[in-house]
Specification:
Layout (H helix, E strand, L loop, with lengths): L5 E3 L4 H9 L4 E3 L14 H19 L8 E10 L2 E3 L5 H11 L3 E12 L2 E13 L4 H9 L20 E5 L2 H5 L3 H10 L15
Parallel strand pairs: 1-2, 1-3
Antiparallel strand pairs: 3-4, 3-5, 5-6, 6-7
Length: about 200
């Protein structure tokens, strides 16, 4: 088995696919953190804190003999200062999608890299506008199963794409791993992309 270039502190299939897309070999490691925002914490500071906490947790849990960089990431959908995470249940998802209907929201994704030399992070901010969504569409979308584990109760790379009127920013960031910012972090750590490794395997 090819040694991983980095550890990925995430079990997200979308982040694994995006990391493999830029040719980085990785191995996933668990990263359990408290994902509750602090009182009055801005969405931007929240995702930056979460990404770094996940990278630190992944580094603490990775094998010491493989002292490789650990990448953490976190995504939040925000309407003004309100953070929309993964829906708790059907009612929560329907309320989120109703709030997003016919308006513009922000998608914030932070990435953090922990290495033996230190810690660095980046923030990607995208603006996404939804067309008005009929209540029957919202209910049908929930029934598809897609919104259940997605920040903001939608997936831009899936069925939720039909709601998106326009996007300004990073498509991969909205998916959960902004590749421009991720490549910057890896380059600063001395790792290139474009074939720097092979697709990783889950731990």
């Amino acid at each position: 088995m090819t040694a991983p270039a980095i550890y990925l502190a995430s079990q997200s299939p979308r982040r694994r696919e995006l990391l493999a897309q830029i040719g980085i070999a990785y191995r996933t490691v668990p990263a359990q953190v408290d994902e509750n925002p602090y009182p009055d914490e801005s969405p931007e500071l929240f995702v930056l804190r979460m990404a770094l906490a996940k990278a630190r947790a992944g580094r603490a849990g990775s094998a010491p003999v493989e002292d490789r960089p650990v990448l953490g990431a976190d995504t939040a959908v925000a309407v003004d200062w309100r953070i929309l995470g993964k829906p708790r249940d059907r009612a929560d998802a329907l309320a989120m999608l109703g709030l997003l209907s016919g308006r513009t929201h922000r998608v914030l994704t932070a990435v953090a890299l922990c290495t033996p030399a230190g810690e660095t992070s980046r923030l990607s901010v995208s603006h996404v506008r939804f067309r008005p969504i009929a209540p029957a569409e919202v209910q049908a979308y929930w029934a598809s199963g897609e919104p259940r584990d997605k920040a903001g109760a939608y997936a831009i790379q899936g069925l939720g794409a039909v709601f998106v009127e326009w996007l300004e920013g990073s498509y991969s960031g909205v998916m959960g791993l902004p590749l421009f910012e991720t490549a910057e972090l890896l380059a600063e750590a001395g790792m290139g992309t474009f074939g720097a490794g092979v697709q990783g395997v889950p731990a």
